Structures are given as C-alpha cells and as structure tokens.
From TrEMBL:
UniProt-listed Pfam families: Usp
Entry superkingdom: Archaea
Positions of the UspA domain: 6-132, 150-276
Highest classification ranks of the organism: Archaea, Methanobacteriati, Methanobacteriota, Stenosarchaea group, Halobacteria
Species assigned in the record: Natrinema saccharevitans
Family: Belongs to the universal stress protein A family.
Protein name, per record: Universal stress protein
InterPro entries membership: Rossmann-like_a/b/a_fold, Universal_stress_UspA, UspA
C-alpha cells in the first residue's frame, strides 16, 4: 500500500512525520511506501530575491526521508509547483496511492474551525481516503494530539452507500484497531433508512463483523443534528480517529462533501479519516 504524506514543512507537518506511533500505525495497516509531497504555490516565483525554494524544500524533505526510512518504509520525494490540493490529488492518482495524510492544527481560540485551506480543499476533492492528523495548536514544538491513529475508532454511518464503503476500510484498519464505536444519528429532517428498519440491529450486524477480528465494539444510536451528535460522541468516547464517508443520503447536500462530514473534519478534537465515494459514483 502507498501513502501520500503532504507537508508544507511547518512544525505541524513535522509532528506528523516524526511521530513514531503514527508511522507504526501506518505500517500496521499495510503501508509500505510513503510519498513525501510539498508544493510551492504558483504565486511564489523562483526569481524572488534570496529565495531558492526548490533547493530548501528538497533539503528539508531529505531529512524527513531519513526519518521515515529508519522506520522501514520505502520513500519517494516530490517538490512540485502549483495549487497545493490539486497537485497532491494529482500525485496520489499518478502513483496509485491508497491514502493521503495531512497534518492540521487543533482548534483556534478565535473560531470553531481547525483546518487550513489546503486540508479543507483536500477534504472536498480527495480522490483517495484522507487522514487529517490533528496537531497541537498552541505549542512552539507541537506534537500530535492523539497517538496510535487507528487504535480507537469512531465510525459514523447513515447507512448510505458511501458510509458502507467507509466501513470497508476496517478490512485493513483492523490490524491497528482495538476498540470501535459505531454511531448512527436519527433525524427527522434527513432520514437515512426506511422507517420500518431498525438502526440498532444494523449496527449490531456491523459490530459482529468487527468482533470477529477481535475488536471490542459498542453501538450507539443518538437523536438530533447529525454533526453535533457525532462530535458529542467523539467527546464522550475519545477515539483516536473518527471514520466517516464524505457523502450521505441527502441530495440537498453538496456533492463532494456533505455538510455533516465537513463539520466533523473541521470541528473534531482528534483525527478524522474521510472516505470519498468511488470515482464512478
């Protein structure tokens, strides 16, 4: 399995790359090859006085390469120019990556948003599963907020096709997962399943599949606003990562990123793994 690790060479990006537990978790789920990608924005020109951006970034990536190679991964580096999220998505497709990882600072004291423009645009357009690795915000030398990326997973589902696809990620995540909380939120505004269906029974069926892999599992049905209730479940159970599909049932939501998953990516305290629909969907 190949993974893209997108970095802007900031302290937050460095925290993701140099976290031994994060690298260990990637190895556990089958990642063998990591592509380090940094993008020089189009509006930064090579001829600017005193600036040799390509050389500086290549040197920084070489240091990161050594760290990752010491953890027994094969590593390729890419210094490219353009719009960051577009180039990252393009490289993910070109190399056949199965995962993109991007670091993101924690909640701002000034606003209830946590992701910068590149991470936000990746969440809206990613062509492969996207892991937003949450990094401490108020720290000179920030660290990851929650180690062991996939040890405790919160899986949120509305039983849509894309949510079912997100559940299939457990086929490789289970190698690093010990606990899982399966959550469905009932809401009269945007029902996800027929009225005569039983969400608790459907969650129990999914839980049985995870328990066959030795994962300790609980199921939770909540009622209210989906994003608020999923985030409340995250606060209650403190998963290391929240797993969610990027498109739900509602045809009124934006096609590439429903408002529920956007809120989760933006407001979650911990890591978020977003699974996009199949390209043919």
């Amino acid at each position: 399995m190949k993974a893209i690790c997108a970095t802007d060479l900031s302290a937050a990006s460095e925290a993701t790359i140099e976290s031994e537990t994060c690298l260990e978790c990637l190895g556990r789920i089958g990642v063998e090859e990591i592509h380090l990608v940094t993008v020089i924005p189009s509006n930064v020109h090579a001829g600017m006085p005193g600036m040799n951006f390509e050389k500086r970034r290549e040197q920084a990536l070489e240091r990161y390469r050594r760290v990752i190679e010491n953890s027994d991964f094969n590593v390729e580096t890419h210094v490219v120019r353009g719009t960051p999220y577009r180039r990252i998505n393009g490289i993910a497709e070109a190399v056949g990556a199965s995962l993109t990882v991007v670091g993101s600072r924690g909640k701002s004291p000034l606003e209830n948003r946590v992701i910068g423009s590149t991470a936000r645009n990746l969440a809206r357009t990613t062509v492969v599963p996207l892991l937003v690795n949450r990094i401490e915000r108020e720290a000179d030398e920030p660290d990851v907020v929650r180690e062991h990326l996939f040890r405790r997973l919160l899986y949120a589902t509305d039983f849509s096709e894309n949510a079912e696809q997100a559940f299939e990620a457990f086929s490789y995540l289970h190698h690093a997962t010990r606990e899982a909380t399966l959550v469905h939120v009932e809401t009269p505004k945007d029902p996800g399943i027929p009225e005569d269906d039983d969400p608790e029974a459907r969650l129990t069926e999914l839980a049985t599949r995870l328990e066959d892999w030795g994962i300790e599992t609980r199921t939770v049905v909540r009622r209210g606003d989906p994003a608020d209730e999923i985030l409340a479940a995250e606060a209650e159970y403190e998963p290391t990562t929240t797993l969610v599909g990027s498109r739900g049932h509602s045809r009124l939501r934006r096609l590439l990123l429903g408002s529920v998953s956007e809120d989760i990516v933006a407001r979650a305290n911990g890591n978020v793994m977003l699974i996009p629909p199949n390209r043919s969907a």
